[in-house]
Amino acid sequence: MKKIKDAQTQIFIGEDVLLNLDEYLSNAVVVADKNSMQYTLPLLPRLSGLEVIRIDGNERSKNIDTVIFLWKEFERLQLDRNAVVICVGGGVVCDVVGFAAATYKRGIRFVNIPTTLLAMVDASVGGKTAIDLDGIKNVAGVFARPDRVFIYPPFIKTLPHEQILSGIAEIIKMYAVTKRKFSIENFDVSNNNFTEHIIFAVREKARIVSHDFKEHGKRKILNFGHTAGHAVEAFLLSQNKEITHGECVMWGMVAELFLSVRLLGFPHSEYEKFLSFAVRHYKPLHIKTEDVPAVINYMRSDKKNYQNKIMPVLLRCYGCPVWDCGMIDYALLTNILPDSILLSS
Ligand SMILES: NC(=O)c1ccc[n+]([C@@H]2O[C@H](COP(=O)([O-])OP(=O)(O)OC[C@H]3O[C@@H](n4cnc5c(N)ncnc54)[C@H](O)[C@@H]3O)[C@@H](O)[C@H]2O)c1
Fold first, then answer.
1. Residue among 112, 204, 223, 233 flagged as catalytic
2. Of the segments 118-132, 224-238, 253-267, which one has the largest average pLDDT value?
3. Among the four 53, 163, 222, 252, which has the fewest Cβ within 10 Å?
């Protein structure tokens, strides 16, 4: 078992981590979604005596209605301030349940047991909780660290391939922003053992977050691919199209690398390799030329914006992210971004 620490949070990774749950089994409630309930709760016999609250686990339910439902359930179960909420699920469950727990009675403890690859490598660690508003991603949220994170890699065996690819996008993001010697062409998506990648991504995230929990500076590099990615995700959700978070982040990284080539001299040859990886493994987004202004409009709601300019994270090279001098005004964006967004179509 690997143990990684992010300031106050202990993160356990391995096939024996579930043995460590015992200290959280009294005065506790489990929250899961349909799939995590079906596929992972049977592998968590230690939780079997606990009440389980079920929520919908998709982006459309990452909203205030689910939070209100959870607060009411916590009230019904008379959770006191010493209670602990055990989140069992993907990034949606971690984000929305973490938010509900962190705001209930001014904050009760929660523990994350991520069940998707994406939640293992990213959403379950770092202490960001959030909900969407009117389709705009993560509008409301609080920074609140889970008490513990228990990452049991075998849970990913029941994930559909598109969910594996979704998690891979966040793993690739972490290599791209931290490793100068990253070669995307050597990344093996068919390898079924992701434990090394999970340990790498969690260790890097914990290191960055320990120094900048509230994202005043360097933590922003973790948003690489997300300015364009969140805009695409919000747009496609508004069109009722099914899309994973990681697919949007992958195409968001393509768009932001395109900007990096133009504005910061990121090597064009590396951009070409990145694009060909995305084209080979990720399905096209089918965004039409006439939709591009609507996508760009969603970027106006990005939390990193400053004085009406967007601030995507760009790369000079792999491992050399620039997070606060890439202010781009909308006119420039409207000129150069459509080409890169349309590459994903
Ligand atoms: N807080 C953060 O730091 C952070 C970081 C990255 C992403 N996120 C958020 O995470 C969310 C995406 O998370 P996600 O990709 O895990 O999506 P998700 O939570 O919607 O899960 C994807 C699907 O997998 C199913 N599922 C879960 N575990 C399963 C299992 N073991 N076997 C089979 N199916 C299973 C779920 O029911 C769901 O249908 C987004 O809302 C994103 O904004 C948050």
1. 223
2. 118-132
3. 53
The better pLDDT of the pair 20, 145 is held by: 145
- CA separation for the pair 68, 64 (Å, rounded): 6
Range with the lowest mean pLDDT among 42-46, 216-220, 306-310, 325-329?
A: 325-329
Give the pLDDT confidence of 169-209 residue by residue, as tens digits. 999 999 999 999 999 999 999 887 899 999 999 999 999 99
Answer yes or no: 300 catalytic.
no
Domains of the chain and any CATH numbers:
2-158 (3.40.50.1970), 161-187+212-342 (1.20.1090.10)
Residue indicated by tokens 């607060």? 71
Ligand 1: residues with CB < 6 A are 33-36, 39-40, 57-59, 62, 89-93, 95, 115-116, 118-119, 122-123, 126, 128, 137, 155, 158-159, 163, 166, 244-245
pTM of the model: 0.94
- Write out the two tokens for 227: 């300015």
Give the Å distance between the CA of 70 and the centre of ligand 1: 18
Distance from Cα 91 to the centre of ligand 1, integer Å: 4
What pLDDT, on the 0 to 100 scale, is given for residue 335? 57
CA 163–ligand 1 middle distance (angstroms): 8
Q: What is the pLDDT of residues 38-66, one digit of tens each?
A: 999 999 999 999 999 999 988 999 999 99
Is the distance from CB of 194 to CB of 149 less than 8 angstroms?
A: no
Identify which of 119, 207, 203 has the alpha carbon closest to the alpha carbon of residue 164: 119
Q: Residue 70, CB half-sphere, CA atoms under 13 Å: how many?
A: 34
d(CA 142, CA 155): 27
Closest CA to 333 of 245, 263, 230, 278: 263
How many angstroms is it from 248 CA to the middle of ligand 1? 13
According to DSSP, residue 120 is labeled: I
Phi, psi of 51 (to 5 degrees): -65, 135
